[in-house]
Design goal:
Bound molecules: 5-O-phosphono-beta-D-ribofuranosylamine
CATH superfamily of one domain: Formyl transferase, N-terminal domain
Distance between the termini: 17 Å
Shape: globular
Radius of gyration: 16 Å
Helix content: 25-40%
Amino acid sequence: MKVAIFASGNGSNFEAIAQSEELKQAGLEIEVLVCDQPKAHVIKRAEKYHIPVFVNRLADFANRSDYEQAIIDKLKPLGIEYILLAGYMKVVTTTLLSAYPNHIINIHPSLLPKYSGLEAIERAYEANDRVTGVTIHYIDEGVDTGPIIKQCKVVRLRNDTEDSLEQRIHQTEHQMYVEVIHDLLNKNNGVGK
Ligand code: GRF
């Protein structure tokens, strides 16, 4: 199964997927990292795993549709079947959605629909929520909406700082993303049919 991963920043989720031998053996092929930020750390991570990088900046296009069309023109010849968003900080619009209907997946650090949008971890921490978590979902035109694939809770411990809570949320994300992709690969390989 050929995928493209989209990321804009740090790239720890990208790396969790890229380094997974289990996913590789199950048939995952990361054909390209799509990145909208030329200086993002995720680019260094991609180089480490010899994964090609496609840097595409919104500022270089007249509008969002042209920007997304350039991505589609890159992905289609590569035979990309799924797009995995992993800290991609742009809203996806109908141009890309209609090129990959029901084949774009996102990860978000909260129990959606709670805390959609930016700074989800910080907001859950400041609200003193005892339980927060992670959501993986297909995307639609909304911000962090779309059918949910999997959710996992992360419990706030009494001594948690925002940093320690954030770390556990990220660990949960990395495990969950690998699991969800694994399930997807099994489904594509016809396992369980
Ligand atoms: C993650 O918390 C993810 O849920 C959100 O953006 C963050 C990306 O982190 N969409 P990283 O770049 O994968 O380290």
